[in-house]
Design brief:
254 residues, mainly alpha, 9 helices, 82% helix, transmembrane
Amino acid sequence: MKLFRKIRNKLIIDNKKTQYLKYALGEIVLVVIGILIAIQINNWNQSIKDNDSLNEYLTKIKTHTAEDIEQLEQLSKGRKQIADLCKKARNSILQKTENENLFLFMIAGTAFADFYFKPNSGGYESLKNSAYYGKINNTKLDSLLAKYHGLVDIIAENEKSYNQYTVHQENYLDTQFDRSVILASAFMPLDSLANKATPQSEYDQAFIEYTAKPAYRNVISLAAWQFDTMIEQYQELTELGHLIIEEIDRTTAD
């Protein structure tokens, strides 16, 4: 600045107005260039900070998605086991061999269990409510996340519908039977039952009557086919989850 000041003073003293104007213009240009460089550096630093913040959100979503996939795998296994039992029980009904397969009907009663997929959407919701969501707007990752959570809502509605139906049927059965004998037959060891005053024939007869009710068989029949649909949705969601993880890895590596 001292050098510039000396040059400016010399030009003024020598009355070189044209050269002074050129110098003044050049000095203004240098100042503007300096400001623009400073702004660019600041924008670059801010962009790095924004990308770091976005990557933190994406890393959290990746972790939550991986947890969802693990949960979906366990749910698929559980529902498939129950569905297979219910298909066998349904076939036994059609073959009229129910009395020969009491144990099968007993374990097929697991169709009354209410399983729910409980996704961890915390990371995704946090990103949507942040200032960084716009950075992935209209991207492949944005589309995948929208599809994923749209399917999550569909799965939740299907599970809710099925579980509410089973609860309704179970409540009806509770008004028709004293379930103390049914539950004893289902869960107590045979050697323990043998020591009770109630003979085994009464346990068997109670269970035959219980499982012969339409409310019981309707649940088994529903699980036999609807669980396949649920499992397909779990698998579709799992595939989307893997695509999301891959896209997050690509995005955070850029």
